[in-house]
Amino acid sequence: MRTDAGPAPVPVPAAVDREDDDEVLLRAHEPVLRFTAGELFLPTGVGPYVARCSLRTRGPGGTGTALVPAGGLDLQRLADLGRRHRDQPLYLRFVDRPLTRPEVRAWRREDRPRLRSTSRFAAVGVLARLVDVLFRVSLLLRGRVPGGVVAGAEVLTRGFPDAGQCPCYGRVVREAGYTICQYWFFYAFNDWRTTFHGVNDHEADWETVAVYLVPDRGRLRPAWVAASSHDHEGAALRRRWDDPGLRREGDHPVVFPGAGSHSGAFVPGDHVISVELPALRRMRRRLLPRSPDRAGLAIPFIDHARGDGAAVGPGHDRTWRVEVIGDDTAWVRDFRGLWGLDTRDPLGGERAPAGPRYEREGAVRRCWADPLGWASLGALAATDEEARALLRDRVDRVSGRLHELDATITAQRTALRGLRAQAQTLGARVDLRRLERDRRRDLARGETELSALVAERTELAEERAAHTDALSAPSSPEPPDAHLAASARPTVLDPHRHTAFLGTWAAVSTPVLILWIGALLVRPTALTLSGAATFLLVFAGVEAVARRRVRLLLTAMVGVAVWLLVAASLVVALLANWRLVLAALLVLAAVSLLVLNVRELLGRRPHRRDTATTETAELPRAAEDVGRTG
């Protein structure tokens, strides 16, 4: 069943019979990637890319040394050198000579699709816009990709072989009842910052999409889809196959890569991404340890995943050329270095990534080593039959434990009754009072243990009843999005919500505010200080008008004015006659305390009917105690 418009997909069965053929499995559910208009880099092959790269290592002084010049590499030699120089920090460099400024200006004048961007500052407030200034300044201090590299990379990739196909590197993992089809896409460049005003640039980019298959009547059917993403992790990376929010073309899931970033999204649109600097993250955790909200100190960026550009996949002009890889693929296994320029950025955003198997530090990626845990599927049974079998096993173990508890409780209760009888007998003799105290101490300890056993039996009985009821009823699956928290749902900008005036004001207001702060610090005269309140009031007024929150601003101003009036009145009264003000405050405190005490007294006094009922209920209990004593 098709859930979106587009070219008719290649007909593929919904379930796959040949489970042992990795290429057949990969072909059956290979994804469709819908890019944004203006995207410069589509998935490309690692072979042509490596052939144009030089291989470098970084020496003790931080300078890069070329081990192999550009044009002297292929995948086999890259694997051999990676194994030989494993103890050295290796990295490839794709663009050895960035384009000059005149060349970049000529490149920009070329006819190509352009992105009509949405102002990212229009979606956030003043504080986030000020924090963004710190991030931009940090680029001057951090290692970053030089200017002209994006244009140079785009020119170089034009010479790569195309033939209407894009390479896709596929891997099949069979684990814990799942068959995982993992698709890796390689891009020559991530130009999110330069071309689309995003977070970072770096040479080379690896992204992945995984389709999780489960057994179904002797065949395999897709159950989940996961895609690598900047802003999410764990369960937020995946969508269930029957989720209405997951678009499919036949049996092929549709993923919308971000423009320049290539981060996977399941919903098309302009996604607001929040990036938090490490220093601000540490400060927020110290000041607000229990607050999960990071929006106030995070920097907003927009990931344009509109899907209105080129599409790659079955049924489209560009299709996939699948190459099966795995742990035995030499260039995947043996080269742990970076696949592009190492800028030594301490934040990591401007450094090239390592290959599909490794992190930048050389450790194996979690999505490669543990694809189930990467998408938080390790604790989820692959099929309903497996889940019900696990429930039946739990019911059997609970029943066995309940049988043990029944016997233990019976024996414990018998022993306690014996201890109580002994204590009563011993208490009748003055010379045996020490033994009586020992028996009563043992009795108290035993009663505590008995109460714990009875409580455990009650909980287990309730648990067994719940599992038994679930097993006796037909299976009822959870909603498709039950695993998604509210914070995991994408924040997609509404292009009609933000006006042109708001976008202009959001871009202009931050520099104006910084200039005013600078003027206030340079010349803190009486004129600038007296104009501070007027400036802030005008600034807040324009911000409220731009965001259509004038009523909220007026309410806040009235509240502030009332509090200031009250505070000023108290100060004036205190200065005029501090004894009278202090006496009034003491009277107010005394009256408040009296009201609270009377309310507590009335709340503790029982009603006459309740008292009579309590006394009536205590009569049988007293008679029972008398009977036991007798």
From TrEMBL:
<keyword id="KW-0472">Membrane</keyword>
<feature type="transmembrane region" description="Helical">
    <location>
        <begin position="552"/>
        <end position="574"/>
    </location>
</feature>
<protein>
    <submittedName>
        <fullName>Uncharacterized protein</fullName>
    </submittedName>
</protein>
<keyword id="KW-0812">Transmembrane</keyword>
<feature type="transmembrane region" description="Helical">
    <location>
        <begin position="580"/>
        <end position="598"/>
    </location>
</feature>
<feature type="region of interest" description="Disordered">
    <location>
        <begin position="609"/>
        <end position="630"/>
    </location>
</feature>
<feature type="region of interest" description="Disordered">
    <location>
        <begin position="464"/>
        <end position="485"/>
    </location>
</feature>
<feature type="transmembrane region" description="Helical">
    <location>
        <begin position="525"/>
        <end position="545"/>
    </location>
</feature>
<keyword id="KW-1133">Transmembrane helix</keyword>
<feature type="compositionally biased region" description="Basic and acidic residues">
    <location>
        <begin position="621"/>
        <end position="630"/>
    </location>
</feature>
